[in-house]
What we know:
2 copies of one chain form a homodimer. By secondary structure, chain A is an alpha/beta fold. Chain A has 3 domains: 17-60, no CATH class; 76-174 and 305-332, 3-Layer(aba) Sandwich (Rossmann fold), CATH 3.40.50.2300; 175-304 and 336-343, Response regulator (Rossmann fold, 3-Layer(aba) Sandwich). Chain A has 12 helices and 12 strands. In chain A, the strands form 2 sheets. Chain A has a 6-stranded parallel β-sheet, sandwiched between helices. In chain A, helix 5 (87-101) links the parallel strand 1 and strand 2 (106-111). Chains A and B meet through helix 4, helix 5, strand 2, helix 6 and helix 11 of A and helix 4, helix 5, strand 2, helix 6 and helix 11 of B. Chain A binds a DNA duplex through helix 2 and helix 4.
Amino acid sequence: MSHDEPVNGVPRHRPTMRDVAALSGVSLKTVSRVVNFESGVSPDLIARVRSAAQILDFQPNLTASSLRRSDGKTKTIGLLLENVANPFSSALHRAIEIVARDRGVVVFAGSVDEDQTRERDLAAAFVARRVDGLIVVPAGHDQSYLATERRNGTPMVFVDRPPTLLDADAVLTANQVGSRDAVRHLISHGHRRIACVGDLASISTAAERLAGYVEALDRADIAKDPDLIRQGIRSSEAAQEAVRELLQLPDPPTAIFASQNLITIGAIRALRAASRHHQVALVGFDDVPLVDLLDPGITLVLQDVVGMGAAAAELLFRRLDGDDGPTERRIFDARLVPGGSGEIAGPWPTTNADRA
Amino acid sequence: MSHDEPVNGVPRHRPTMRDVAALSGVSLKTVSRVVNFESGVSPDLIARVRSAAQILDFQPNLTASSLRRSDGKTKTIGLLLENVANPFSSALHRAIEIVARDRGVVVFAGSVDEDQTRERDLAAAFVARRVDGLIVVPAGHDQSYLATERRNGTPMVFVDRPPTLLDADAVLTANQVGSRDAVRHLISHGHRRIACVGDLASISTAAERLAGYVEALDRADIAKDPDLIRQGIRSSEAAQEAVRELLQLPDPPTAIFASQNLITIGAIRALRAASRHHQVALVGFDDVPLVDLLDPGITLVLQDVVGMGAAAAELLFRRLDGDDGPTERRIFDARLVPGGSGEIAGPWPTTNADRA
DNA sequence: CTGAAAGCGCTTACAG
DNA sequence: CTGAAAGCGCTTACAG
């Protein structure tokens, strides 16, 4: 008796529709009808098939069915994040999952780690498994490698950063406006020597936030001091060191704009180490957990991460439902939330409104 | 001319091996050999096939190949987390991803949200897509629904909480020992009225941590006061309220053991609201971000989340590689990291060592 | 209402 | 070294 020979009608491998058909004495097609809730099967046969399926604990093979099915859908999407473990990425993941779950769609997630090779490899791995769509926080500056896939009809939505050399939907934050508001807030509290500490200028969000900083200074007729602009900061440790150096300048800044959450954390540590956290103002872009428990609380510019994730998923599913209108770009506002650190007064005159 | 008719040899649908074969003038089987780097194909044919594949931008369909392939592997695993957005879950996800990536395996991740129906549904969704293995942080108290799948040969590893009514590998934290050490630490600093604030007793980790609290009190001959034991706390808000109430007792606790990170956060807020954060000692189980920036810093019992994730993934892949030894249970120590809040002295005599 | 045949995109098991 | 036939587990397109 071979390994696959049935024992008491129970096969010795994972049961298939063939096994259910054999046990219930109907054709394969009838089993398929019952499993897929197609109408027009007699109650008697439905009962026999269900009973056999239960006895065998039959679980339909979705990958086989989507291979043959005319729509070809796998009920699977792929999510390329910066790093699944960082709070921005995981909040995005969560928001997308909730929308996907309602549609019976399951999510592949992976980290790109700001590495364009990983981005390509991960996208290829998802495509090889025939995901129905992709949601991408891109790392590289060339998404043309996705052009064929897009022509093949796979919808894709970019989040946080727009695609480059590829026409596709995107859900973004108004980084420049948010940053301009943050710096204007500092100016209105009497600051003119304001430092800007940011990530690599090659990352579009970092570039836009720097532009917002510059715009606010320009509007207030404040000269830009290159000593106060520190870019290319890649970790909270690097940010801590950068702020330490800033504080030791002959004419140090009275306020700091930290253009990303890891940088904000480094800035907080540096200010505390120098015991300047009650003297030097700080506004950070992006959320940082538990800052309301710090003294002073930290003033932050918050992105609507959950809204962006939900919007990206809804846009993706709209495309999957057949919407082939022109490429969309949804921009979400970032909102300044005073916490204490951004309201520390500077040595220059303060203004009533943030509209300095 | 039909939609699928080739135009200049380029098909108007996603290219398949058939298309590559037609364009390069070889058989389907030869294309398969080249794509899979099988040996024994003449250099001439390899070149022709590669060239055709590139012209068409051919991307092999991994789901089709795994359907036919004798090992049936999809190079995909499923990860059931409590909530992809919480730091414990996402750190676990990250550690698992790193191991999986080295093996060309891609990860489905989903949130179970402490809901056993979601747990079953999500596991079924992964199984329907024929994942090679499952890593599960279970919510429910009956994993027998996975028994057939396990008999079908799908390896599965449980993390943080052991499986119930199912024999399977597990990677766990020594919750009781870690909690006992935490409470002993408080006792050694002069505390005897120590509150324990914890999650639902039905969650195994919460039950073990309560047991550790009880064990430490028993060993020190301290009577257990039911007023000081608050279980079933499900959010940081509930924890804040519970601690607020504890502080208003006629004979309030001088120290608090918070058995989970959300609870620790609630406890911090309640102590600050009552201005008792420099008087009442606090030790929390699980990591809480940025607590080193608080005043006082918070003493925590830390789990080795990254180690646990890596161990779970490695165990899973070992099983996938054919290891069918007996079920394993790996226990990771939790380690107490003093931060300040746990070293606030209580009114009773202090002891030299934690070995009170 | 039911089922036999063909085929989704690939690999297996052979034959030459 | 190369390829024609069969089949993975399903659905499609028919026929009865």
